[in-house]
Amino acid sequence: MKRGVLIAIIFIAIIIIGTIFFLLKPQGNGFGQPGGFGQRPGGAEEHSGPPKAMPLPSESEISKLTRNYPSTIKALNEGPAIYSKEGPPKNELISDEKLEKIKETGFNTVQLLMINSLEGNKYYADEAAKSILLNDIVKIKEKGLAVWVALEYLNAPPGSGASLGNYETFKKAYLNFSKEAGELMEKYKVEYVTVNNEPDLFFQEQKQWGSETEIFQKVAEFAPLANAAVKEKFSGKVINKITQVDKRPKEVLDASFINVDIASVDVGPPVSEQMGLDGYKKEFEQYQLYATLSQQKNIPWMVGEYWASNYFEDANQFVKDNQVKLAQTSFDAYLATNPKGVGYSWNDFSSFSLPHGEETRQALKTFLNKI
Questions:
Q1: Could you tell me if 311 and 79 are in contact, meaning their C-beta atoms sit under 8 angstroms apart?
Q2: Residue ranges of the chain with per-residue pLDDT less than 70
Q3: What is the pLDDT of residues 187-217, one digit of tens each?
Q4: Helix axes 276-283, 285-297, angle to 10 degrees
Q5: In which region does residue 17 sit, left (phi positive, over 0), alpha (psi from -120 to 50) or beta (all else)?
Q6: Residue 28 is part of which domain span?
Q7: According to the model, what pLDDT value does residue 311 have?
Q8: What's the CATH code of the domain at 224?
Q9: Mapping DSSP to helix (H, G, I), strand (E, B) and coil, where does residue 200 land?
Q10: Nearest to 328 by CA among 303, 363, 286
Q11: 163: which of 44, 100, 152, 172 lies 20 to 30 Å off by Cα?
Q12: Number of structural domains in the chain
């Protein structure tokens, strides 16, 4: 009997000690950022994806960060490069070797992507990917390069068929997330932020939001609101991204210039032997169209993205055979555009691994030296 009582006492003591330990354990996300930012209820263990994030930059490292604005933005867009081709992100930072190659090519800015997703009525940043992002920001800035961070609407590329749900729910959640992201990017002294990352393209896939006309009305309403939201606590420069400007209604084009510091256009049409180089060249008339509009709005313009094939996509044979000519088409169009742009962004470093990749990189290097 006495033995049973002793066991019971020991069992109760273990429970009490465990409860005290849990209550005294530090709470919060440990990211040195506004409470609740990107924090899923219950922690990462209750959700898919990597359960642990890598250690974050120290407050001492963060305090030393400053902004450095180049006269012309020459950006390498890394996009979802922190994701492996097979699955979730690897805990790997951008390497010193790659950063040196980036600088040697002539880039002065690195464009990174914040991986996030909408769950219910709240946006969350992927915790492991975010820890890589913040460490990369510090590492890139320590190399003397500027940083440009773009947010995404959902953790999937255009054409994925993924749904953003109800428009009003999405809008409220994303505007709140933009404010929080702006505060975090301010802390890390990020130079450029994009919260409108091709909304015209993503919104078109949300058929539940109504007709094409109604969806474009939503783009025109949403874009200025998102830009204003991130500016609440972010004092860097906001860059807006839009695509296919020759096919967009006036209200969408006008909205892309509201509450922005730089308006950018992304051009990278799917190219094949059927389109040919002449058809491809015609697509880049969008540069002049958007530059003319930007002059009317008194807002500087730039190329937000150029690409010949999508991330993690096996380029078709026509792209492989004509990579240099395709890239040069974009370069020539940019140089011929008036008024001149304030920057150019290239997607992505893996493109230099194609058969004519090094030749393309050298052509890009020559182009970057000219702008």
A1: yes
A2: 1-52, 81-91, 157-158, 311-312
A3: 999 999 999 999 999 999 999 999 999 999 9
A4: 10
A5: alpha
A6: 2-370
A7: 66
A8: 3.20.20.80
A9: helix
A10: 363
A11: 44
A12: 1
